[in-house]
Specification:
- By secondary structure, the protein is an alpha+beta fold.
- It has two domains: 109 residues, PurM-like, N-terminal domain (60s Ribosomal Protein L30, Chain: A); 184 residues, Phosphoribosyl-aminoimidazole Synthetase, Chain A, domain 2 (Alpha-Beta Complex), CATH 3.90.650.10.
- 37% of the residues lie in helices and 24% in strands.
- The protein has a seven-stranded mixed beta sheet. A five-stranded mixed beta sheet has the order 1-2-5-3-4, covered by helices on one side.
- It is globular.
- 53% of the residues are buried.
- The structure holds cobalt (II) ion (2 copies).
- The site of one cobalt (II) ion (CO) has 5 residues, from loops.
- The site of one cobalt (II) ion has 5 residues, from loops.
Length: 307
């Protein structure tokens, strides 16, 4: 049902009239120092691609590339414990995994989920005239860069970690309840990169109100100091040709909108009448959703950022 064509979050294969399998894999190098938190973040990030398709995770497999000779065993044990805790929180089971010796530590999951074929959510499923809601603030990439440079406060890191370890399950529940058809989670290509993928896949234009996008306060401050990850600059350069800027563009804000996220929030398209119920349902689940723009028929495949 979903393959490589639309750069979607996961592959989807119809098994029966009522069940489609969702298949996804994600793993990466540590972005925080605490192994237990890193395990949680990597797992929440991998599980998110099942949620982004409107699905429910069933099983997960560990992917471990561990420098077994250079680090104490407790580090690996804590990473795996973090991953397992998130898998359990998602109501899924850890079914196994594979590990290789690797000088550069990496961890993640391959996750299998299920969805009813008629309730599948894709990045191609956006319709014109919908309102775009984002469920986590941006800025985790900037904070991770600041952390590496020794410039992030403990408070900023804690705030960023809280976002990255949070499952996107509440967003998936809201999408299922309201029959959402178009969504994606914000990860490595940043908000603008993933918005552009949605615009292209859905054959629509997206309008994003730059000032309405929630951004971690310390990320704003760090970005103003120039602490923007190389990946975010690459994202911005990649998106530039499909961006339409209106108003007085603020370069730092554009950097933040391109900031590569780890385990970022859900970007979903809602009928205008569903926005208030969706925000209320998210709030009940401890999630602060924000209206950040809308989908339009004009400029298909392009993202308009208004300042
Ligand atoms: Co994704
Ligand atoms: Co992914």
């Amino acid at each position: 049902m979903v393959g490589l064509n639309t750069a979607d979050d996961a592959g989807v294969y119809r098994l029966t009239e009522e069940i489609a399998l969702i298949l996804t894999v994600d793993f990466f190098t540590p972005i925080v120092n605490d192994p237990y938190l890193f395990g949680q973040i990597a797992a929440a990030n991998a599980l998110s691609d099942v949620y982004a398709m409107g699905g429910r995770p069933l099983t997960a497999l560990n992917i471990c590339c561990f420098p077994v000779k250079d680090m104490p065993r407790e580090v690996f044990r804590d990473i795996l414990r973090g991953g397992l805790d998130k898998v359990h929180q998602a109501g899924a089971v850890l079914a196994g995994g594979h590990s290789v010796e690797d000088p550069e530590l990496k961890y993640g999951l391959s996750v299998t989920g299920v969805v009813h074929p008629e309730r599948l959510v894709t990045n191609a499923g956006l319709q014109p005239g919908q309102v775009l809601v984002l469920t986590k603030p941006l800025g985790t990439g900037v904070i991770a860069t600041a952390l590496k440079a020794g410039l992030a406060s403990a408070e900023a890191v804690a705030e960023s970690v809280a976002m990255m370890t949070a499952l996107n399950a509440p967003a998936a529940e809201v999408m299922a309840a309201l029959g959402v058809t178009g969504a994606t989670d914000i990860t490595g290509f940043g908000l603008l990169g993933h918005a552009q993928e949605m615009a292209a896949a859905s054959g629509l234009g997206l309008v994003i109100e730059a000032r309405a996008v929630p951004i971690l306060q310390q990320a704003r401050e760090m970005a103003a100091m120039g602490l923007v990850p190389v990946g975010s600059h690459a994202n911005r350069a990649y998106c530039e040709k499909s961006l339409i800027l209106s108003g007085t563009a603020e370069p730092i804000l554009l950097d933040l909108l391109s900031d590569a996220q780890t385990s970022g929030g859900m970007l979903m398209g809602l009928a205008p009448a569903d926005v208030e119920p969706a925000l209320a349902m998210l709030r009940e689940r401890g999630v602060a959703g924000a209206v950040i723009g809308r989908s339009v028929a004009e400029h298909p495949g392009q993202v308009q950022v208004s300042f």
